[in-house]
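Running co-folding for flavin mononucleotide.
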Amino acid sequence: MQIRRLFAVLLAAVIVLTLAACGTGSNTQDSSDNTKAQETTAAGTESTDSATASAETSEQPSSDISDTETAENKILVVYFSWSGHLDSMAHWVADETGGDLYRVTAKDPYLENYNQTADRAKQEQDNDVRPEIVVDITEEQMAQYDTVFFGFPVWWYDLQMSMWTFLENYDFSGKTIIPFFSHEGSSNGAGALPTIEKLAEEATVRSDDALSIRGGKVDGSENDVREWVKGLNY
Ligand SMILES: Cc1cc2nc3c(=O)[nH]c(=O)nc-3n(C[C@H](O)[C@H](O)[C@H](O)COP(=O)(O)O)c2cc1C
């Protein structure tokens, strides 16, 4: 009788210990799953928000620049976006190419108000101003990239001014630049492509292959953007 009781006590202890061990295991699993879920949500929110966000002011700079050197063609997808179109396009390009994504932002962000932004942009252009930008790609990091997908909105019939600053900040010799842009009528980019060729004259600028999408059509253009990337030999 005593032996049976002892056995029952031992069995109960084993069950309790086993359950405790399982509990610990599944908690660890949960917390790592949670971390993943949060990351996914954060990334998802970022791109959804930015597709609807109206201004750079409401945006955090996004960057996934890495220091890894590889023998293969290393790709950077760099872009400026004020009202979100280029943000969407750049995310699709980065996803399709596997390139690092980098958003250029002005240190003094453009305001949400269209008229104020249009006035500031006009003044900057008329006075040949280079707006200061947040710089968090080092020259060494930039040197590792072979191909730069370069996304911008047409502003006042030319390249958006922060992207002038960006191009003048780095050495693009030996690199290939593939432009993609959005506009509201200047479908050939007006002066923007010649400006890129001028500012990055040491680079091969593939202006003939540039992708142009009207702002109002960007939301439905994911497939077009991906097909464009697939058709490029880069
Ligand atoms: C200040 C400013 C100037 C613009 N100038 C032009 C222009 O000259 N030609 C044109 O086709 N679109 C022009 N646009 C429209 C933008 O190129 C277009 O809305 C683009 O899709 C915006 O991209 P984003 O949403 O990434 O900022 C201008 C927009 C702004 C805010």
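Result summary
The longest strand covers residues 147-155.
The mean pLDDT is 81.
Job closed.
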